Amino acid sequence: MDAPAVLLLCFLWAPAPALADAANGKARNCADMRSFYSGKGFAIAGIPNTEISGEHLRICPQGYTCCTSEMEESLSNLSRREFEGRVKESGRALQGSLYALYRSFDGYFVELLNASQRSLQDSYREAHGTLFAQNARVFQDLYDELRRYYRGARLNLEEALNEFWARLMERLFRAANLQYTLGDEYLDCAAKQMETLRPFGDAPHDLHLRATRTFVAARSLVQGLTIAGEVVRKVSQVPLSLECNRAIMKLMYCPHCRGVSFKPCANYCRNVMKGCLANQADLHTEWQNLLDTMMQVVNSFNSADSGLDVVLYSIPRQISEGIINMQENMETFSTKVFQACGNPRVAGTGSTVPEEPRKRGGPVSENKPSPTNRARLEKVVSDMSSKLRERQQYWVTLPTMLCGDKVAAPAASEDRCWNGMTRGRYLPQLMGDGLASQINNPEVEIDITKPDMTIRQQIMQLKVMTNRLKNAFNGNDVDFQDASDDVSGSGSGMYAEESPPRGGTRAVTRTDRPKLYAYQPDNKKVTTGTGSHASPSSSLLFLSVAALLFRR
Ligand SMILES: *[C@@H]1O[C@H](CO)[C@@H](O)[C@H](O)[C@H]1NC(C)=O
Ligand SMILES: *[C@@H]1O[C@H](CO)[C@@H](O)[C@H](O)[C@H]1NC(C)=O
Known about the structure:
Elements: H1 3-13, H2 31-39, H3 69-128, H4 130-150, H5 157-176, E1 180-181, H6 184-192, H7 194-197, H8 203-235, H9 242-252, H10 254-258, H11 266-276, H12 278-281, H13 284-300, H14 308-328, H15 330-341, E2 345-346, H16 371-391, H17 394-402, H18 453-473, H19 480-488, H20 521-528, H21 538-550
Antiparallel strand pairs: 1-2
Helix pairs in contact: 3-4, 3-8, 3-9, 3-14, 3-16, 4-5, 8-13, 8-14, 8-18, 8-21, 9-11, 11-17, 13-16, 13-18
The structure holds 2-acetamido-2-deoxy-beta-D-glucopyranose (2 copies).
One 2-acetamido-2-deoxy-beta-D-glucopyranose (NAG) binds next to helix 3.
């Protein structure tokens, strides 16, 4: 066609009603399609000038069309990429908000833990003077272990606490008996007497009860947030089936091929999305359970007498009470140890040093959480609760979200929308949520007997995590080894593990644990040098959690 002819055509077409229906038999001009198609980044070569008969169309309703087979395929591919992109983007926003919750909780918790440690150091230095310098390392190690535990390290909290008391006992015992030479073996023997002699009184038991509950809960919460983020990431990447690709193409781009410049009807859009996201919607129940359980755990953190802040601030006091108890009963304890382990050798000449002068200035001053601290905790808790609550419906509201105003026609124009065939009202019913409800989905043919395996696995992950949190909520430490095995089953280690499991430290269920004071010298070799587990800086761990939450 030469230039004047094109001009002439344009002239002839200009006055014609732009919306002349193809059904009228008049072939319309494809200029709109051209600009639309090139706007999507495709080459316009090959686009017909006017509508052609559409027998070649495989997805779109046949009839006059501006789309060639190749255009139909390109648009179909585009619709898939766009749909998958939007599902991922929406998942990323959710991951991002879970990550923000993690950050805010983690920031608070670590600060609290640091404040607790500082308070122990400060008040201990004040109350016990020189003894502090000798024991500073023991305290440091305790807090390091608590931090590692919170971060998900595979260590047994009870054993870590027992280890702490045993080492503290050794230091105090040695300091009180400087006139003797006390070798490692002797001290091991002394440590074995702790269970019966209870030099620290009730303090170890009390500390264990409160701290375990809190640390197990805090750690499980962080794990819950991480697992939730991982599930979102994996599920948001599930590729579109062929059937769904067709349905999405028909929904999004067939109106263009058909020359109908209307958005799809809202219910039509939702039925397509409900069909294509049916497996995802099956996450709903377990997702809701997990978020519910996380909310329970979070809400328990600001209880008046066993809140996170109260418990963390009480650690120094309980330790101090234990120390005072031991110092008060040192003579009896020493005598009994001498009876059980034999009289130690007197140290060489001149080294008979008087007992450490005991400064008993009363218990270490009680450090109560300040009102500002409480307010911050309350904010962390209420933010987390409300954000989690908002996200509980995510999987069943996703189809509607994806059919927002940008995509689908508003309800008001239910007669003026693309219904899959032409411009007009969409009559079929709105489908329910989940795979089983798609049996009569008019838009997507789905085999409801074949659930998506990736998504089933993620549903299992949610279940496992919920159980773990429930256990944590009830104060039970769960076997971390098993827990991380569950998780790695899905192809990802959950937390960076900074050290291999220690011999004999593999977490065991509560009932067959060693008793509070069961002291295992075998372990000592490994555990005494806590400092030698060169643990990567917490920022590294932090980054790895961050990386998990943000993986795409
Ligand atoms: C559409 O995608 C399929 C599968 O990825 C590919 O083989 C085909 O070449 C694509 N077609 C067009 C026209 O881009
Ligand atoms: C808390 O203490 C640890 C170890 O002492 C330190 O690495 C970290 O930076 C501290 N964090 C905050 C927020 O104070």
